[in-house]
Amino acid sequence: MIAGIRASGAEKRIFRHNDLDHLEELLQEIERSRPKVIAFESLYSTDGDIVPIGDICDLADQYGALTYLDEVHAVGLYGKRGAGIAERDGVMERVDVIEGTLAKGFGVMGGYIAADRVICDAIRSAASSFIFTTAMSPAVAAAATQSIRHLRASVAERIAHRLQVDKTRRALWEAGIPMMPSQSHILPVPIGDAQLCREASAHLLERFGIYIQPINYPTVPRGTERLRITPTPFHNDRLIDQLAKTLREVWESLGLRCETNLVPISRPTSLRPAA
Predict the structure, then answer these.
(1) CB 118: neighbour CB atoms within 10 A?
(2) pTM of full prediction above 0.85
(3) Is 104 a catalytic residue?
(4) Which of 36, 80, 104, 167 is catalytic?
């Protein structure tokens, strides 16, 4: 998405993270008749927080802007049919362009946008990154189609996913592992030091065979380095307990801070079962 903005050559203005007041300030500075697009994500992958899509659509309507929503971390995992946060929140029809992936939740590869016919035809005709990309193979297309078809009909995987995320959050809390507030299945564990973050990830992989992605600058600001834990429905209770115990051991071996005075956690509303 960022590469597309840069390649367009258009003027860009960046609003502060999930700060709709700042977004409105920027929109007020631009005349209503000037074409503009608000580009944003539904679920931010380093903090695990969720954007108020409906409120952004309200601003877009008020100031004459199109909306471009990145749902790559949410498709397959949220919504009655697995279409993402916009579906879960009942605002899909209000978004002009929705970008998704066939990897991550759908487990294959490739990606897509969903928009009206005019926008899709314009992208097919003019987008260099589309024109000069090799077409998806029939085998991959068939696998993606089957995965989407299954997750549109089945909620079992999404329910199991929510349960295992809650169990993981609880296990880490009981082990004294610090966690950043998260509204989703993404559980960021703060470390705050780039070297220690890399060492913690390396210890987990080399000593215990557990891979957890370290998130360092420039993905996050310096001083906010973290591990990103993303449980799946296939991480069973034994694996979750093993992760918590292993993290505690790594934390103690590296001299990282453990939580001692913890407040009981509650089930996040963003993980409620699909209606």
Answers:
(1) 8
(2) yes
(3) yes
(4) 104
